[in-house]
Amino acid sequence: MKLGTKLIHAGVAPDPSTGAIMTPIFQTSTYVQSAPGQHKGYEYARTQNPTRDALQNALAAIENGKFGISFGSGLAATDGVMKLLSPGDEVIASNDLYGGTYRIFTKVFERYGIKFQFINMQDAQNIKNYVTAKTRLIWIETPTNPLLNIIDIEATAQIAKQHNILLAVDNTFASPYLQNPLDLGADIVVHSATKYIGGHSDVVHGALIVKEEALAKQLYFIQNSCGAVPGPQDCFLVLRGLKTLHVRMQRHCENGAAIAKFLRQHPKVAKVYWCGFEDHPNHHIAKKQMRDFGGMISFTLKDDSQEAAFKVLSSTHLFSLAESLGGVESLIGHPASMTHASIPREERISNGLVDSLIRLSVGIEDVEDLIADLQQAIG
Ligand SMILES: *Cc1c(COP(=O)(O)O)cnc(C)c1O
């Protein structure tokens, strides 16, 4: 079955008690038993909920996995992966991560005796230099936020397999429409479904998808034991959102390409970061592992002052100034003062994250209107 069909049909079936075509919101904490221990597969809603089951099965199908494990947020899903580890274990992570992921690794799990190495993975072979006998997990994100760097998933998976290390890929930016890390050898796919999968900026949700049953069992154990589960209403919203992922993503990609090209020829724009350009440093890898290039774009102005960037950021009408990404509406943001403000300025700038960098999450509006909005804001 192809992705568009899976998005609409996988995991869901009409409700057997009523015929309701949409999975109901099972807003219940417990389930009646006919005799002690005799029930219909549902005992208590932290452990199982039918709305969550439908979503977990749908998520597993759209990432070409076998098991989906849902959490209350993307970071709760990340927390679930880290709880596979024990004190003394080591993690190799890319040095260009979502800020919240960096925070939970360094501020929470380092205190529990897990050691992290944050390294440049633009050339995946560099990972080999950091593998030790204690390395249990490699954690990557591709494309990265906000500089749209690309990491070779297949090459990373080969290194992980050679050394018997788990590979987790945060696939939030690409979404299953653009890339399926399990097909390229990853063990765990991580999603903040808050972004493209939910797609409507109306729900916070996270998920893990795996193929291996033993790994899935460990993760379901953590989901139930630690309890960071999503509510049924949120599962319903994600299920509703994901049915249109393929049509939304197609438009995000078309609009993204048109806006990247518009920005690149604009006389006031210095540099445009978008992995669809042939001269993007890892364009060949993006082309190999992604089906298209997405709607996330960053750019800098020739006037590299923060004031010039702020003027653009406060002059758009259709692009709303806000954090987050992946919704139907276009957003504009300033990583240096918003999503990445916690990183010291020198470190930020040495990684290319300068004060004039502006990030766009291109929505699915009519692209002529979006371009006109940017044109008047940049001036
Ligand atoms: C937003 C985001 C997260 C965290 O997800 P939440 O749902 O906000 O907890 C993780 N990774 C990436 C790439 C993100 O953009």
From TrEMBL:
GO terms for cellular component: cytoplasm. Its EC number is 2.5.1.48. The keyword Transferase applies. GO terms for biological process: cysteine biosynthetic process via cystathionine; transsulfuration. Signal peptide: none annotated. Keywords: Pyridoxal phosphate, Transferase. GO terms for molecular function: cystathionine gamma-lyase activity; cystathionine gamma-synthase activity; pyridoxal phosphate binding. Belongs to the trans-sulfuration enzymes family. This is Cystathionine gamma-synthase. It comes from Chitinophaga oryziterrae.
